[in-house]
Amino acid sequence: MTSFDKPTTPDPAGGPSGDQKAVTQAALFDAFGGIRGTVETMLPGLLFVMIYTINKDVKLSAIAAGAVAVLLVIVRLLRKDTVKHAFSGVFGVGVGVAFALFTGSAKGFYLPGMIYGVGLGVAFTVSALVGFPLLGVILGPVFKENLSWRTRNPGRKKAYVKASLAWGLIFLAKYAILFPLYWWGDATQLGWVLIALKLPPMVLAVYFTWVFLAKAPPPIDVIAEWEEKEAAEKAAKAARAATKEPGL
Predict the structure, then answer these.
(1) What 8-state DSSP symbol labels residue 245?
(2) Cα separation, 63 vs 98, whole angstroms
(3) Cα(34)–Cα(90) distance, rounded to whole angstroms?
(4) pLDDT value at residue 245
(5) What letters, b where the CB count within 10 A reaches 16 and e where it falls short, cover 217-241?
(6) Which of 72, 144, 188, 246 is deepest in the core (most CB within 10 A)?
């Protein structure tokens, strides 16, 4: 009989299987947008800082960045691709554009994203310290385990705690560099440093996540469990109905 209470055990050889590593890598690639999602996230900000570097026109730079962000969403909609990463990107760019146009300062374009990044860093760190890692909440549905790792898969919970702590510390370190530039540097310098720090910290955080999760016990597929349980209940119901038929 299948048990719905025991956690899935790790690979008998004592380490993660090649399949588990591949599944983890593919899930992380999808969850964080992959190469295309990364490019779409970076392009509006890169366009803003390039235009502002050339002509120092905050309004033109902001409008160009916003227009590109919207265009990327339209392209995805026309291609019927996943738009969750594009929509999150256009929302962030839109807030930055609004700040830049309202304040008339190029630094205003970067401020909302910087505040959001610090907030994420604090959230990841605190969630890890209190034992409810944010990364587990985010990735649980991706791995079809939902929140089963909290009570049924302690090894996986430990991996999520480590990964969330890594994300938190990396984010906080990144903005410890950027905020002094925001306060004392010029807008062009801030923009180029921000672009330079856009990808490496993210890659590092995803790498640590992959390392921790690849070594953890495999996820418990609660969706498959629910389906199996539902099928068993239907079969039992059909069997009971059959025993009540006349002539049996």
Answers:
(1) S
(2) 10
(3) 17
(4) 60
(5) bbbbbbeebeeeeeeeeeeeeeeee
(6) 72
